[in-house]
From TrEMBL:
The keyword Secreted does not apply. It comes from Marinibactrum halimedae. PROSITE patterns: TPR. The keyword rRNA processing does not apply. PANTHER family: CELLULOSE SYNTHASE OPERON PROTEIN C (PTHR44943), TPR REPEAT-CONTAINING PROTEIN MJ0263 (PTHR44943:SF8). Keywords: Repeat, TPR repeat. This is Tetratricopeptide repeat protein. Gene3D superfamilies: Glycogen Phosphorylase B (3.40.50.2000), Tetratricopeptide repeat domain (1.25.40.10). InterPro entries: TPR-like_helical_dom_sf, TPR_rpt, Ycf3/AcsC/BcsC/TPR_MFPF. TPR repeats lie at residues 142-175, 176-209. It comes from the Bacteria.
Length: 533
């Protein structure tokens, strides 16, 4: 008689080998064969983990369902792997897994709370609230209130978020994470003094929590306390997602640069690369020669725009090459402001400092559709950020744009770098054109295209930094809980002279900002039609 456990172990080993060799199709076939056999709990657990680690979609759900039939308490195990795929790469698959888990363990509070985390990841806020409210009056009140505050914050229900945060700190006054959340909500409501107290309290309870230092940094920068803000901003390097490079030469700490060579390198997102690049001219004015390591997508654009700078694509190979050369100093772009920006006067809106590709610009300009005698061409994008930067609050639903799409005198272009095929199809049905180039990766084409159209109307994302640096007329739709970089001025960016801000009021939706956006577009059209004196 064949030993079933031994056969299943062999099958699992076969599956591991197939996955190691990258044969996904064969792996799926192997999984289906395994699932047809009787499984013991250990084998089912191994199969589930393999499926999860390799993000095998449908097979993951099938394997997970199988083990829950053998042992419903295994639903708890999914929480232990929440930092691995699919939880940090595939939110929808993570949600499917958690729905299977909660069906098997409907009264397991740990599973309930993890389901809420995944609901937040997917922006499903109503269900998140519904699942949390019954837990507020239980022994799990603090955990529920913390997530409820996050739910309300993402829904722009800021006063309710504040109430939930305050109650959580009263119940657990020594929890630094709760004060961190409270401070973030207080900032969004403009209660800066209270927010500073909350952030300092969080740091006093846990001095090594870099999130609290970053939150204090962002508050300080928002209100103009630049010395504190830039110093606290250095805590960002504790975040493993931030690029940190080490070179044989020392970090620059403000020493004279005349006749010296310095390596500058981008350490954050594409928008940060662009925003801080305005300070390259400050370094050049000090007499330094610069080698700039920048996101490879920006390399051609920067080589054209900074002709006296040695612009190199940021890659392991180039880092190794530059490390072998002789330089006097190095510094990240994100650390430059502490030496050049000491007050709001140091951030006067700058003129365009990036130059698009002239030939591509002419091609796009001549290729724009002319469906009417006078038409305004508008690029748009409707979301920005990530889960960590509250993507939900920086998303304007496509339904809110319909009135603008329906106007005969406006032609819209989809410049959302992560738009799905389904979203593109919806936009196509509304007459919105999606350009043929890769909006996310072909920055050369994107920059030329944006210079060819009349303006950009966008949520807060990296595209607005590119358009601002190019000098394109830009209107940025900001949530009530806007990023620190937009400071507190009601309608003008301090970073770029061509960028105007449209702010969402607290505890409201996007209706008013969208009406304001239409008025600003009308004003732009009218000014363009005015006769030149």
């Amino acid at each position: 008689m064949v030993n079933k456990e031994k056969v299943n172990t062999v099958d699992i080993n076969t599956l591991q080998s197939v996955l190691k060799n990258g044969k996904t199709r064969k792996a799926r076939q192997t999984i289906k064969k395994i699932l047809k056999k009787p499984l013991d709990e250990n084998t089912a657990a191994s199969l589930t983990r393999l499926c999860i680690e390799n993000a095998l979609g449908e097979e993951t759900i099938l394997a997970f369902s199988q083990i829950l039939k053998l042992n419903p308490t295994y639903a708890q195990e999914v929480i232990a792997i929440q930092q691995t795929p699919p939880f940090n790469t595939d939110p929808q698959l993570a949600l499917q897994l958690m729905r299977v888990a909660i069906e098997a363990q409907p009264n397991n509070v740990s599973v309930q709370l993890k389901l809420v985390d995944v609901l937040l990841l997917n922006g499903i806020l109503d269900e998140s609230e519904q699942r949390l409210l019954p837990l507020v009056n239980t022994q799990h009140a603090v955990e529920a209130l913390a997530r409820l505050s996050e739910t309300y914050y993402r829904a722009n229900r800021l006063h309710e978020a504040l109430a939930a945060s305050q109650l959580s700190t009263e119940l657990e006054p020594n929890n630094d994470a709760l004060y961190k959340n409270l401070g973030i909500t207080q900032v969004a409501l403009g209660r800066f003094t209270d927010a500073a107290k909350s952030h300092h309290k969080a740091i006093s309870l846990n001095p090594d929590n870099y999130y609290s230092h970053i939150n204090l940094s962002q508050l300080a920068l928002m209100i103009g306390e630049f010395k504190l803000g830039w110093a606290e901003n250095e805590w960002r390097f504790k975040d493993k997602t931030i690029t940190q490079l080490n070179f044989p030469c020392p970090l620059w700490r403000g020493e004279p640069l005349n006749g010296k060579s310095i390596i500058l390198w981008g350490d954050q997102g594409l928008g940060d690369h662009i925003m801080y690049s305005r300070l390259i001219s400050n370094v050049l004015e000090q007499g330094a020669s610069i080698t700039l390591l920048i996101d490879h997508r920006l390399t051609p654009l920067y080589q054209r725009s900074f002709k006296s700078v040695n612009v190199v694509a940021l890659s392991q190979t180039n880092v190794a090459l530059i490390s072998s050369q002789t330089h006097d100093f190095h510094l990240s772009l994100g650390s430059l402001p502490q030496y050049f920006i000491h007050s709001f006067e140091d951030i006067q809106p700058c003129k365009p400092f990036l130059l698009c590709h002239e030939t591509q610009f002419e091609k796009f300009k001549n290729g724009l559709p002319k469906k009417a005698a006078s038409i305004t061409h508008i690029g748009f994008s409707w979301r920005g950020g990530s889960f960590g930067t509250r993507k939900q609050s920086r998303t304007i639903p496509l339904a809110m744009w319909e009135a603008l799409f329906n106007r005969e005198d406006l032609q819209f272009y989809n410049l959302q770098y992560d738009s799905s095929p389904e979203e593109k199809a919806i936009l196509d049905s509304k007459g919105v054109i999606t350009p043929s180039f890769d909006v996310r990766n072909d920055i050369e084409a994107l920059s030329a295209f944006m210079c060819a159209i009349d303006c950009l109307l966008s949520a807060d994302n990296s595209t607005v930094h590119l358009s601002g640096a190019l000098g394109v007329n830009t209107f940025v739709l900001l949530p009530a809980s806007a990023e620190w970089r937009w400071f507190t001025d009601p309608d003008q960016s301090l970073w770029y002279e061509s960028v105007s801000l449209i702010r969402q009021p607290p505890d409201s939706n996007w209706e008013q900002p969208m009406r304001t956006a239409e008025k600003k577009i009308e004003a732009l059209i009218n000014s363009a039609n005015e006769p030149t004196p």
